[in-house]
Write a structure and sequence with these properties.
With about 425 residues, this protein is mainly α. The chain is built from 16 helices and two strands. Helices cover about 70% and strands about 0% of the residues.
Length: about 425
């Protein structure tokens, strides 16, 4: 076990110990308010069954997350105090999540271990903060502005805890920089994350007043939001597939080697992550990298092997401008066209995304030309020698770190 994976193992071990201890405690002492436990367990289970995988969503089961948070923040049911406590909260969330994760595991969909780790540790944190505080306070302290502020502060702390945990798990698995990952996680909380927190808090307050009948009523808005997000994710996936298909036009026409655009896009995105680009910036970078050679379709005679890095600067700029014009006609984001248009400009005049595409494209072409096991290293050294004139040194060094992590493998045509 490497030191890099130690935090990942510790997080999984902590979640496992927490879940096992709480489940054993609940089995030994029995369920308090079994009706409420069953209702929240069903709600969490339905949310887990509807969990989507892929698409890069930071909260794949918003309804399950809201139900778990609501149970952690539950202090009363229809005006009667509850006594379920922290162990039962964690046990119910664990049992419902495990039971309804089985279909996802059977289909091999989604990082179930990381998902369960985040769910248990986050819900456990919320329950530990709320349950003792609520049951040791007087009736006059459970209402009014002060109580609302306490709930809001707890929701903020829980959100921060979940974001930190998600970023840490992703960092351990991918070795991407922790800072940009945390920033993207926090930014993502403004979307579906806000709806999850608000719905969880409202559910717990509504159940305290009107009872368990509030659960289906207040689940409906979040369920509709989840369906809308799934449609949006499907549209976004189709949009990316359309761009990838357009990018393959140069390969089908014989202007570039098979898989060139895809390889440049994947490596460019990895370099962008290494340099701390945000998720929207990475999306623009990926689309620009996919379509960076589209201007070659205007050439009467194809460039041998599509190696535009060897062409004169003016010819490179002409191809880049023609490619940007094609991108604008396709209706792709205007920022993508800007990156494509400027990829052949002097790097000091380029945006960061264009600098990355230019360097990665040149590396891919040089590494393809080199023969033998030292090909990738030779291509990287040629890039470093050209840094003073053609490529930004920071981009080249980020590329070197990414390649080192990936074993400095040369591009494979096909």
């Amino acid at each position: 076990m490497t030191a890099r994976r130690l935090p990942l193992v510790l997080a999984h071990a902590a979640a496992g110990l927490l879940g096992a201890g709480c489940l054993a405690h609940t089995l030994r002492h029995g369920l308090e308010e079994p009706g409420a436990a069953l209702a929240f367990g069903v709600l969490i289970g339905v949310g887990e069954l509807g969990r989507w995988s892929g698409g890069g969503e930071r909260e794949p089961a918003p309804l399950g997350a809201a139900g778990a948070l609501a149970y952690a923040l539950l202090g009363e049911t229809a005006g009667r105090p509850t006594h379920h406590g922290v162990p039962q909260v964690v046990a119910v969330v664990l049992a419902a999540s495990l039971a309804c994760c089985v279909p996802h595991v059977a289909r091999g969909r989604g990082p179930t271990t990381d998902h369960l780790t985040r769910r248990l540790l986050t819900v456990g944190f919320a329950a530990v903060c709320f349950q003792p505080l609520y049951h040791h306070s007087g009736p006059h302290q459970r209402s009014g502005p002060a109580y609302a502020l306490v709930v809001v502060a707890l929701l903020v702390l829980t959100t921060l805890c979940d974001a930190l945990l998600a970023a840490a798990l992703a960092h351990c698995r991918t070795r991407w920089p922790f800072g940009p990952l945390l920033r993207d996680e926090l930014r993502g909380r403004r979307g579906i994350g806000s709806a999850v927190c608000a719905t969880g808090a409202v559910m717990s307050l509504a159940v305290a007043v009107v009872g368990l009948w509030a659960l289906p009523v207040f689940s409906l808005p979040l369920l509709l939001t989840q369906l809308s997000y799934r449609r949006y994710a499907a549209v976004r996936t189709t949009y990316r597939q359309t761009i990838a298909s357009l990018a393959r036009a140069t390969e089908i026409a014989g202007y570039t080697p098979p898989g060139h655009a895809r390889r440049v896009a994947e490596l460019s995105r990895a370099v962008g992550r290494e340099m701390g680009l945000t998720e929207p910036e990475l999306t623009v970078l990926e689309y620009a990298a996919l379509m960076h050679d589209i201007g070659q379709l205007s050439l009467v005679d194809p460039v041998p092997a599509g190696a535009t890095a060897r062409l004169p600067a003016e010819e490179q700029r002409r191809i880049a401008l023609l490619g940007a014009a094609v991108v604008r006609q396709t209706g792709v984001d205007a920022e993508v066209a800007v990156v494509v248009a400027q990829q052949a400009d002097p790097y000091r005049e380029q945006p960061v995304s264009a600098r990355i595409v230019r360097a990665v494209n040149a590396y891919e072409e040089m590494a393809r030309e080199e023969t033998g096991p030292g090909g990738p290293l030779g291509a990287l050294e040629r890039l470093r020698l050209a840094c003073a004139r053609d490529y930004q040194p920071e981009v080249v060094e980020s590329l070197a770190r990414v390649l080192q992590r990936d074993g400095l493998r040369a591009p494979v045509v096909g």
